[in-house]
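Q: Predict the assembly, please.
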Amino acid sequence: MAAEDKWKESLPELTEAIVATYADENGLHHLNRRPLPSREIVSDLVHDLLDVLFPGFGRRQNLHTQNVEYYIGDLLDNLLDKLSQQIRRALRHDQSKRLEIIDFEGIAQKKSVDFLRRIPTLRAILKRDVAEAFEGDPSAKTPQEIVFCYPGIEAISIYRIAHELLKLGVPLIPRMMTEYAHSRTGIDIHPGASIGPAFFIDHGTGVVVGETCEIGEHVKLYQGVTLGALSFPRDNEGKIIRDRKRHPTLEDHVIVYANATILGGETVIGRNSVIGSSVWITQSVEPNTVVVLEKPRLSIRGPKLNQADFYSI
Amino acid sequence: MAAEDKWKESLPELTEAIVATYADENGLHHLNRRPLPSREIVSDLVHDLLDVLFPGFGRRQNLHTQNVEYYIGDLLDNLLDKLSQQIRRALRHDQSKRLEIIDFEGIAQKKSVDFLRRIPTLRAILKRDVAEAFEGDPSAKTPQEIVFCYPGIEAISIYRIAHELLKLGVPLIPRMMTEYAHSRTGIDIHPGASIGPAFFIDHGTGVVVGETCEIGEHVKLYQGVTLGALSFPRDNEGKIIRDRKRHPTLEDHVIVYANATILGGETVIGRNSVIGSSVWITQSVEPNTVVVLEKPRLSIRGPKLNQADFYSI
Amino acid sequence: MAAEDKWKESLPELTEAIVATYADENGLHHLNRRPLPSREIVSDLVHDLLDVLFPGFGRRQNLHTQNVEYYIGDLLDNLLDKLSQQIRRALRHDQSKRLEIIDFEGIAQKKSVDFLRRIPTLRAILKRDVAEAFEGDPSAKTPQEIVFCYPGIEAISIYRIAHELLKLGVPLIPRMMTEYAHSRTGIDIHPGASIGPAFFIDHGTGVVVGETCEIGEHVKLYQGVTLGALSFPRDNEGKIIRDRKRHPTLEDHVIVYANATILGGETVIGRNSVIGSSVWITQSVEPNTVVVLEKPRLSIRGPKLNQADFYSI
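A: Predicted assembly structure:
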């Protein structure tokens, strides 16, 4: 027996030991079930939809008034098939414990068409988002640069797609889409959040917008901002209660600077307010309020320090 | 001579000038050396291993009790070859200054088999991680959603794989794996950290867990949490001393909220303690302690402010 | 008519409704225009350039003194074509409103060659960056590990490439490159920032370095650090004024620890200073200053707390 074969002798034993751990019905596996939506196809769908929302900025160049209808018509034809197939999978997975026969295919097709009917409205909202970004960021040279390069616009666009699908009752896929955006941009917006138009996130890495946030119009967030929950209420058995408002409300024209943290379902930041950088806040503030941190204590040391000693405090 | 050729005339000169900078033996190159592990194959291995750990959630759908053994057996057969080839490269690179003849192939094969023997134990730990995540996050609808969508579970799973390889004495590859997870999730866990079961990271972007952290059971971290080092001790020649405990210890049932920073190798956060959002702490705290920031100073301005003036403080 | 056909009946109507929204000349589209640079080719160019800067660490293994000149010569030949094609697209897009005839091809070729002439200088700077990283991070085992695994070095290298292209007057592509790095590493360095050699970013997720920052030599940043702007000055019409220094200056040998925020164009952090973790600062500090947060208020609670109550403060 060759050396390589000897080493491979352990393969059956390894396989058996691992497969034995799959027997537990509550284990970490997805065996004997209808397939989940495909991560690859869902992220492909996201790019198709971004092409529809921002034609000429995406994968297909050289679009013009004469050819764009053919391109979009063909793209939508494919998109309808892929989207309704993935929605069908998500619905079947979600309803796998029900016994009655459900026409998942018909429902998925209807939801796909209903979703695409909302594209013109989505484009009108995104137009206001892009205008707000250009108005608010001095380092942007043109609005085109914002659509083409800004991760904030990418994350917001994908959130708006996912939010519409969630409102149509599509399970799983909205979360897959926003997690795809999260992976690409570091911006984590739950598809359940409610966010008005003219929304802008600059830089964006580390931003978290929780499921039950309510955000008005013309709101601007910087990197590292958390709109999160305080402690979670629990029922008599100690289980956390889901589906309650746990995240803050930001009224119109609020600005939240880098790394600020706003927590709690009853926290309301009044309109025109500004939450300064690194502020941590769990209480409501009136409209037109500015909240800033006090200046830090300065600890000054002599000019001949060894760099290694600087931070040993 | 065509215009294009004229422009390309500078090619030999450009090449020569650049290649001349490679002559320095201490330069930024990896010439005349055995190949490093391949980034592409290592990230492919990560996905193979996630398929083994969570069958049916990954690249292969439609697995069931009857076909899963064939699929896993075949996957492991390929995985053993790829893993032991990459470990061989990593070992050879790490030992490139030694003169004696070492059976890198045999050692790599043994380490690969030893690693795969630990998969059932890893699955048992990950089961507790997933249960903790579902118990702790009201926005998760099913445990399947957590395995399928949560970047925290992806980062923890890849850390647990990498940590086992590190314990088996595999160089470089564990760090490549956790940096792959870092790139995808924004969660940076050093493979050397020691982390108990039922560990959960929510949202996760910006989390840093340092090399010498010790984390107990049932610990929960939110986005932006740093478990880091204070200043680094240096030897008599001013060189930093490596391999000393530089990062904090978190006992069982500790929760650390968003953007908190805990620093120092002698810092111990006692069991059941809670470190609040945005807290910066370099000292130990007793068990059952809650550490929170004071409320921020409120600076309130009149209702007729120009938005541009809000933040000029 | 088959069921599938019936469902697809809405396709022409959907297409028409969406395409109608493209008519607005100020809409979110890029129709009837010269093509933008390609995201895929620009990210491919980044990897080609990283191969030239760090030969043997990238996509091509087994390089040695005898074959490296052929490999690099061939790579540069292709790189010149791709780079000058993309620069031509970026220039044409930027100048699309001018009427005179411009030799975009010739200008793009010249800029490409000029850029590649700077590679040896870039390598000399990057050598100092890598040395600083190895000197400053106890968890790195070898300098090779830093080049091969550290996202900070990847982000800094891509920033240095982008910054040279920006100085040569190349539009759009520098920002595309740094946003590509941002997506991979969570580190967002504007290509316009000016950064001296021996620069190191550890971990890096959430770092933001603004367009008009000036950073000296031997500066070290940790994860989550923002070097940002205060409010933006506006002209008489209320439009923000672009192209003014809005971001801070860090002199030589400054260290900024995790999640600190330094804001304002007139803020200067004097040489040898240290800004502690989570500090928020908008004023200048003298050389050799250490700025740290005060210790947080400790709120200690009894040993029999229900975990759900811990954070309801």
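Chain C is about 40% helix and 10% strand. Chain C touches chain B through 80 residues (CB under 8 Å).
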